[in-house]
What does this fold into?
Amino acid sequence: MVFLTGAGVSTPSGIPDYRSKTGLYTTGQTKRPTEYYLSHDCLVNEPAVFYQFVMKNLYYPAAQPNVIQTKQAAFTQADRAAIVTQNIDNLYEQAGARHLHEFHGNLYRIYCQKCGAVVDYSTYAHSMYHEPDGGILRPDVVLYGEGIDPAVAQASVNAVHTADLILIVGTSMRVYPFAGLLDYRQPHVPVVVINQERLELPGVTAQYELDATEVFDRLQVGASHD
Ligand SMILES: [Zn+2]
It folds into this structure.
């Protein structure tokens, strides 16, 4: 099976959907759309503005995985599931997930744009510059104006294409190209949605307008029953 997930699986860990959160922070002196602060243009032209914005709005270093992530991770550890997520918050990594495809990257993979060296979060939180060479650090996430990593996109397509059950959890499936992954499923494969808001998606087999934490709290990750 494959879990297709988004912001709704991380909100129980205290991470707001950045689309709603950053709305609060765009009323400052340089009033620009959120998309600008999270764009390749901003990173290149105003790296300090980009750095301040992501530090203030995207990083929640104290966040811990919740029951949705830990149960989904347990399914992947049993080789029964893959996860394709839009989330960049590292919580699936913290939960020990395998077969994990982070479609939009990971905020906690941070590298120097000059030399490619990887640094940890505390180094980045201290400064946007890589001390040895003065290069500007950045998180390995897909910004507006950048493309999805082709290897991650291909692995995500393969996961959907080979799945015999697709579970959409905590995402409205409105952001492309992520939403287009559904097109790669086998035609007979059931698509189940667990989301607080109803989705108008073609081809959905079953839809549960429920709090996903309650669902995954009750799920047992037992042996596969044939
Ligand atoms: Zn460097």
Q: What stands out?
A: The two ends are 14 Å apart (CA to CA). The mean pLDDT is 92. The domain at 2-21+66-104+142-218 is CATH 3.40.50.1220 (Rossmann fold). Residues 112, 114-115, 117, 130, 132-133, 135 surround zinc ion (CB under 6 Å).
